[in-house]
Specification:
single chain, 400 residues, Urease, subunit C, domain 1, TIM Barrel, 6-stranded mixed beta sheet, 4-stranded parallel beta sheet, globular, binds zinc ion
Length: 400
Amino acid sequence: MNISCSGEGKVLIIPQSGAAVLGGSWSSEKGCVKESLYLEWQEGKVRVLRPLKKEEKNWKSSQELFSWENYILMPGFIDTHVHLALDSVDFTSCLERWSDNLVMEIEIRKHLQQYLEYGIVAIRDGGDLPGYGWLAREHINEGQWCGPFVISVREAVAKKGMYGRFLGRGFLNLDQWLMEKEEFFRQGTDQLKVIVTGIISFKEYGKVGPVQWSEEELREIVDSAHELGKTVMAHASGEEGIRRAIGAGVDSIEHGYYITSEQLAQLKEKGIAWVPTVAPIGNILKYPSERYSSLEIENLNKILRGHLASICEAYELGVKLGIGTDAGAYLVPHGKSFWDELEWMREGGIPQEEILRMATRENAQLCGLTDFGKLEIGTPLMNLQLADFSGDWFQEEKDK
Ligand SMILES: [Zn+2]
């Protein structure tokens, strides 16, 4: 078996049962504890985790113990919005490779490895037309591929001819959805993703691709998933699209650019989560390229500032915030971009302890994962990570 070691950017192979000395631990309940800890695991699960006794300090080297003093043991991260089948480099050429299963298999297995190297032990895949995200889920569950636990929507529900042709087959109208939904669910899906709007324009501030469904239609789609006990994630930006998604009773708003204060209050009231995916816009500014015009960069800056302000507002209101990257999008690489997203949340003014809590416990809840996002007796080691003891996420918070 293995454990994700984000502290070194690698995956460690470990025996099913064993013991180690650690530099400390972090959990949402106790926060960061920096003291030498003794960890023992059996059949892949935590059995003992306690402070190292004085008399034990010397037998560290003599015993068959892993020396993990440079690491903090903590729950692995969960990325709540990724697209395994996209490469974050070139959308068009990536889609051309989709017809080549062998090439895609190599590529996706590389993405999966990257997640583990960066401490991400579970991901929620937001879909792709050929179903590569779902394929990864199956192979991992069957133990054929190594990677994080995958929750997959398989393919998204979009209106045919509108945004999202690469995310799903597309439905002409509600009638077609109602006719085909049984078959759609029968092919397998963990959650449902509905495309409510197009994407935001970089060229024109405030502009968003058209809304695809009426509120009533959306409600029908949402209900068909809820009847089967499946959570609904809604890709929505812009005031009108977000309004309809909230009205239709979705479980989370994904992206949500241009969300209003009033809508944030509604999310709080209805217990709807928000996954603001800052990286797809923020990373374009963080890692400059020649791809965008100065006008676009100016607009992106404006969008980013507004978005970060809304995130801060949402946090203060007590809205459920999920941390998801939209990995696979341009400049949002699988694995690494999760740390960018953490930085963006910090940039938005959320205390770092809270961000770590969202990245673990809250995200686990959002994805319906019971064995993830926590560190306790019985937790599988594969769901944990060894983080960098000296990393700035585990230092005392600077006075602001
Ligand atoms: Zn998506």
